[in-house]
Every structure is written in structure tokens, then in C-alpha cells.
Amino acid sequence: MKYASLLALIFILTGCGLSPQPINARQEQVAEQKEAERYGEKMKPAIKELLKEEDINHFITSIHFDDDVYINPMGRVIVAGYVNDNPKYSFSVDLLMTSKEVDNLSASPELAEEFIDKEEEARLLKEAQEEDRNSGNSNE
Question: Does residue 6 form part of some domain?
């Protein structure tokens, strides 16, 4: 009986066998998430500016940000959204909390297509076709 009481006392004093580590780790994770959300909100003007810079065809009329901001396994803050009220024109950006700038912009294929300089693309295609014709004539 004495041993049972002693074991019960040890069990209670040690937190029922649970280490305080998971609680602290969870609190730290929550704090990091809140900081990422604040940082993502702070960086939205820079993200808008970057999207406008990439938009050489003036396609973008509106920008919508998703509510969720998350931290990827590499520690980057990820902010996502879409443009022109159409989720098929989606984007995501990687932010490094240390750099205070947008580190990477990823766009859906549909949005990336709108970022291509159509005039430059047509000029390069024409040049490539002319090269093909000229190289075909020299082989004869």
C-alpha cells in the first residue's frame, strides 16, 4: 500500500507521465503561425506590386488572397491567392521572414500564360520559323 501511494504521488508530480515538452512545442507552433499570419498580411502590398510587375499585358484587374497563411517544412511563409475573381488564375508566394521580401512567385499555368509577352513570343516564333526555312534551303 505504501508503494502504491508513493507511485501515485510520483505519477501525479511528473504530470501523469507526460512531459511538458509537447505543450511548449504546441505553444511555440501557435506563436509561429500567428507571426507568419502577421508577416503575410504585412507583405501583401509587396506581393501585389510583384504581381503587377509580372503582368506586362495588364491582365490583372483584381487580386484576392486566401485566408490561410502557412509555414512550409522549410520554414518559408506561404501566401496564396488568385486574380480576376477566378481561382484558375492562382498564385502562391514564398516569403522569408529574415529577408523582408518576396522570395519566390509561383503561378498556375493559366496565370503564367498571361504573364508572357505576346509580341515578343510572336517575334521569336517568326524568327525560329525563318531559321528553319533557311536551314532547310541550305541542306538542298
Answer: no
The residues facing 102 across adjacent strands are: 95
Residue 81's CB is within 10 A of a number of other CB atoms, namely 19
d(CA 24, CA 33): 14
Residue-wise pLDDT for 115-127, tens only, equals 998 888 888 888 8
36, exposed or middle or buried, with CB in 10 Å at 0-12, 13-18, 19+? Answer: buried
Segments forming the whole domain that contains residue 33 = 26-128
**Interval 66-82: pLDDT, tens:** 999 999 988 899 999 99
Residue 111: partners with Cβ closer than 8 Å, 6 or more residues away: 82, 83, 88, 89, 90, 91
Report the SS3 class of residue 58: coil
Question: How many structural domains are present in the chain?
Answer: 1
Q: Is the pTM of this model over 0.90?
A: no
- Neighbour-count burial for 43-59, b at 16+ CB within 10 Å, e otherwise: beeebeebbeebeeeee
Q: Which CATH number fits the domain that encloses residue 104?
A: 3.10.450.130
* Angstrom distance (rounded) from CA 30 to CA 69: 13
